[in-house]
Amino acid sequence: MEDLSFQHRVRGRAGGTRQNAIVGVVASGNLEVLVERVLPDAECVVDIRTAAMGFGEIWSAVIGDFVERYSPGGLKFSINDGGARPDTVSLRLAQAVRSIAENGQ
Amino acid sequence: MIAPIKDIVQAERARNTSFNEASARTRLALLLDGGSLVEFIGPEAREVSPHLKTFDLPEQYDDGIIVGHGRLEGAPVFVAAQEGRFMGGAFGEVHGAKLTGLLHAARRIGSIPVLILFDTGGVRLQEANAGELAIAEIMRAMIEARAAGVKVIGLIGGRSGCYGGGGLIAGCCSALAVSEPGRIAVSGPEVIETNRGVEEFDSRDRALVWRTMGGKHRRLLGAADVFADDTVQDFREAALELLELLGPVGTFGLDRLKAEHERLAERLRRFGRCEDAVDIWTAEGVAHAATVPELPADQFIALANRIGRTSRDAR
Fold this sequence. Notes:
The complex is a heterodimer.
Chain A: E1 2-9, E2 20-24, E3 31-37, E4 43-50, H1 56-70, E5 75-81, H2 86-101
Parallel strand pairs in A: 4-5
Antiparallel strand pairs in A: 1-4, 2-3, 3-5
Chain B: H1 5-15, H2 24-31, E1 38-40, E2 65-72, E3 75-82, H3 93-109, E4 114-118, H4 128-147, E5 152-156, H5 165-171, E6 175-178, H6 189-196, H7 206-213, H8 215-221, E7 226-227, H9 232-246, H10 254-271, H11 277-283, H12 297-307
Parallel strand pairs in B: 3-4, 4-5, 5-6, 6-7
Antiparallel strand pairs in B: 1-2, 2-3
């Protein structure tokens, strides 16, 4: 297993009022993303535990692209990864932002 | 009165969603009344397995099971749903403890039924001892809850089926609903083949696996009480049907267990010499038994209802 962590300054706060959300499942080629609204509005953190070693540069690019596109301010993402491909990771991150942007608990 | 739009949308989604293919979270979201699920020890608690790190394996924040409470047609229910894609839905220490705790809560309250959405290959081998203990604790907690008057209903239609210790726990439930892809057994096809040889059981013969362990056979044998088509809405309706069927729960105790043992002994006397599931269905009076695997759900349900149900004096 390899632990990775990325911190970004972001343009603005993510929408919605939910405090947390979870998407995905930890399985081969899949991952789960737990997203929590626990940070100051201009910050975003992504913590990753992955079964696939040595892909730090690709994670960095995928997360950088995601933060630029969605401006997920105030959100902390915690990922358990079962060796998902970059496109699956991007999809799950987008789903996570969308889930927490819904109103509710 | 006309149902609110959001309830209609929810039912429509549930009808269009395969139970077999949905995640545990989706199953619960669509099985229960919309937005009614309240989770205990949710993923944000990060109550993960203490063992998987040792094996350098990835963890899941809910350890592969969701437990909580919600509503079914307005009435409160406790629920547990296993995620069959995370380590085959297998029981580990935390996974098992969450279900045990839920059953303890149900026993204390006494009047709220429990729905368990099984999707499991059995005990998680990486935490074998803790997992085996968890199975025993769950079975005990379930029997205690039932003795306190709680109805415990198992819903089985996941990709991993319901095997190993999961099959034992299912056998302790008040009633079961199963779909065609849902399989119920203790030893899985490959386990039997490994231990007894390919002549005993060819695990690659999918038709054999399905007619021996699949939902149709379990319904016809009386192991499952209701056969559901593979949509979340059908399982919702099956759960409501079983709650209705069980009615006010009579006393569950030694007499009921003895009656269940007698039922199983009688089943063995009747069918013990059958070589194949088709022989059993024929012995039960099913005409053209060989065509049962191809029957669409509605025709199969009509057939199964003609064959009858397990007596409620047993189980």
